[in-house]
Automatic annotation (TrEMBL):
Species assigned in the record: Aaosphaeria arxii CBS 175.79
Basic residues composition-biased segments: 51-66
Gene Ontology terms: cellular component: cytosol; nucleolar ribonuclease P complex; ribonuclease MRP complex
Bias type Basic and acidic residues, positions: 146-173
The protein's name in its UniProt record: Uncharacterized protein
PANTHER family for this protein: RIBONUCLEASES P/MRP PROTEIN SUBUNIT POP3 (PTHR28272), RIBONUCLEASES P_MRP PROTEIN SUBUNIT POP3 (PTHR28272:SF1)
Signal sequence region: none
């Protein structure tokens, strides 16, 4: 007689869940993803071609070779002593395409720009009721810190902070609005590096007529975008307002991609009781 199968019993497990409405990132159809990627790569290819042609590769591997490379002889060194001005003129690369000043490349660069835009949208101080605290007239409710690039110079960051304190205005388009932010990840909430972007994008474009659109492309798009720009990897990309040649791309994205919604921000500011939200699971 065959043994009878033991039926495994399950029991429900309950846990509390966040009562606020989660951030919603609009889904993009495969057809629109392919169209956006094709237009974007065509727009970025001149930047990659300029970088490939006129930017010298990193010399990091040269140190590893050490003394394996033979030194240039004195005769050869003497042959290089010619008109230095002519050599400098020949080595001077042509200027990069104008689009390079209107494109933000890299996750840190995009995050820093969005942070500056968000800082303009939300006041840094808010008056308090005098009955609550007679010794303090203001409450700091938001302190947005600057993000430094991975290869940034600390001294440069200090100089930028001092110039802001002295009232020196940045260039006109330094913190221009960003109509489009593109990331090669389909689900930002599942990526530790990209999880902050939807909320930051929503806050940075609260009072704008055309909110910033977040375009989430599949992970496979990173290889194609990085190849178009001639860089090893790409974590995020943003296009500034009035970028030359980017008008059709921005218009297409605005027509087919909805804006990011963060209902929990308004719910949290209202300071209302949201009740208890539970989630049921089985073990």
């Amino acid at each position: 007689m065959p043994p009878t199968a033991v039926k495994k019993t399950t029991k429900p497990i309950y846990r509390t869940e966040n009562p606020f409405t989660k951030t919603s990132v609009p889904a993009i159809g495969q057809k629109h993803q392919d169209a956006i990627l094709d237009i974007l790569c065509g727009l970025l290819e001149p930047l990659g071609q300029h970088r490939q042609t006129h930017h010298n590769p990193s010399k990091g591997k040269k140190r590893k070779l050490g003394g394996k490379q033979s030194s240039v002889s004195a005769v050869n060194r003497g042959s290089f002593k010619m008109d230095t001005s002519a050599a400098v003129d020949d080595a001077t690369p042509p200027p990069a395409p104008q689009l390079s000043n209107h494109v933000l490349i890299g996750l840190n660069t995009v995050t820093r720009h969005l942070t500056a835009l968000a800082q303009k949208q939300i006041p840094s101080q808010m008056p308090l009721d005098k009955s609550q605290d007679d010794h303090r007239s203001d409450l700091q409710i938001l302190n947005v810190t600057r993000h430094a690039e991975n290869d940034g110079d600390p001294e440069k960051n200090h100089v930028e902070m001092r110039s802001d304190e002295e009232g020196a205005a940045p260039p006109k388009d330094h913190y221009a609005p960003l109509p489009v932010v593109i990331i090669p990840h389909p689900t930002p909430s599942a990526s530790l590096a990209h999880a902050h972007l939807p909320t930051l994008i929503y806050i940075s474009s609260l009072d704008t007529a055309q909110p910033t659109r977040l375009v989430c492309l599949p992970s496979s798009a990173e290889t194609r975008l990085a190849s178009a720009l001639h860089i090893p990897r790409l974590g995020a990309l943003a296009i500034k307002k009035d970028a030359p040649g980017a008008g059709p791309l921005i218009q297409y994205i605005r027509e087919h991609v909805e804006r990011v919604e963060c209902p929990w921000i308004g719910e949290g500011l209202r300071a209302e009781w949201q009740g208890v939200k539970t989630e049921r699971q089985t073990s």
